[in-house]
Write a structure and sequence with these properties.
Length: 152
């Protein structure tokens, strides 16, 4: 009996595709951010657009929660940028939309807490915290989002 519909091995869903796009583009963004303190916006927007399409095709009932997560983190980082007098970069502000989309609402707030905790531990251990010194926060946002996606 030949069953062509049988699932053999790994099945790629739209959700899996969106997460893979997030991981691949975010790794490139993080490496670039660590080296240059800038985020390549074309990579960010390409990944964001592809992820929006894949998440919308996957499940429209949860898509509104993803948009809510993106909007929530954007507003949160915009407020933080305002009160820090521009110390939070525009790249981090724009990347927060991507992380909010992937981690969804309300889990996106857990991803921010995890990101801040990992960042604090990293810089305390490394001894790089000094007043006025710029830090790259994008890798920590990526780690927080990945933690939420895979473990919560």
């Amino acid at each position: 009996m030949n069953n062509n519909n049988a699932c053999t091995g790994f099945t790629v869903t739209f959700y899996t595709a969106a997460i893979l796009v997030f991981i691949i583009t975010s790794l490139f963004i993080c490496i670039f951010d660590i080296r240059t303190m800038h985020i390549p916006l074309w990579v960010l927007y390409t990944g964001l657009c592809l992820s929006v399409i894949f998440f919308a095709l996957d499940d429209l009932s949860t898509f509104a929660w993803r948009i809510g997560g993106a909007a929530s983190l954007f507003i949160l980082f915009l407020i933080c940028r305002f009160f820090s007098k521009g110390k939070i970069g525009l790249g981090d502000l724009q990347y927060s939309i991507y992380c909010g989309l992937v981690s969804s609402f309300p889990s996106c707030f857990y991803s921010v807490l995890i990101s801040c905790f990992i960042c604090l531990i990293f810089f305390v251990i490394k001894g790089l915290i000094s007043k006025g010194k710029a830090i790259y926060f994008t890798p920590f946002m990526f780690l927080g989002s990945i933690f939420v996606v895979f473990l919560l």
